[in-house]
Write a structure and sequence with these properties.
Layout lengths: L8 H50 L4 E8 L2 E10 L2 E4 L4 E5 L4 E7 L30 E5 L6 E3 L2 E7 L2 E7 L6 E5 L5 H15 L1
Antiparallel strand pairs: 1-2, 1-6, 2-3, 2-4, 5-8, 6-7, 8-9, 9-10
Length: 202
């Protein structure tokens, strides 16, 4: 005669625990991966900003870094001014999908407007099309050839995605760029304090 006692309480608890762990890994892993992507793209953007400064100070002509969007994908590109218009000096670099990552202009130290904008620009066309008002870049960074000062684009740029927020700060006077996790302190106040610290350390 077969002995059909069924499952014990301990066996049921173990099975429930295993299912819960597997389900938790399935739900958490994609979010964790996307949070890591925010950090990855922040570091890529920092490198491109620093490269834009280096190009401005070492190459002939005038250079700038432009952040733009195409088909819900966000890119940066190094551009050079030639014959009065901006053209690409290098291929665009991908820095995230718009559906996953948001680039927010929050507080600026100089020439650009201090209000948040979400302008777009077609990468098949150069930066001169921004004057039309229909397609514009998210942000432009320009540096002085002699001093390295950030003449356009200094201040705080927030990168948000999947519950993580990272700030890229470019100091106006020195053009120095750094990355930090966002805090509750206001961006204007924080940028002013850190700008003073950056000037003292340089």
């Amino acid at each position: 005669m077969r002995n059909n006692k069924g499952f014990s309480l301990l066996e049921v608890l173990i099975a429930v625990m295993i299912i819960s762990i597997a389900l938790g890994l399935f739900l958490i892993t994609p979010s964790a991966v996307r949070r890591k992507e925010v950090s990855k793209y922040a570091h890529i953007l920092k490198e491109e900003i620093e490269y834009a400064k280096a190009l401005s100070m070492t190459r002939e002509g005038q250079w700038q870094l432009t952040i733009f969007e195409e088909e819900d994908r966000i890119y940066v590109v190094q551009e050079k001014k030639s014959d009065g218009s901006w053209t690409r000096g290098f291929s665009p670099v991908f820095i995230g999908n718009k559906s996953d990552i948001t680039y927010t202009k929050t507080w600026l130290g100089n020439a650009l407007e201090e209000e948040e904008k979400s302008f777009t620009k077609n990468p098949e066309e150069d930066s001169t099309n921004a004057e039309s008002g229909e397609e514009k870049p998210y942000r432009i960074y320009q540096f002085d050839r002699d001093t390295g000062e950030c003449i356009i684009g200094s201040g705080v740029l927030e990168i948000k995605g999947r519950g993580k927020c990272i700030e890229i700060i470019v100091y106006e006077e020195t053009g120095r760029c750094e990355i930090q996790l966002a805090s509750s302190k206001g961006n204007g106040e924080k940028y002013g304090e850190r700008r003073q610290q950056g000037d003292q350390s340089d």
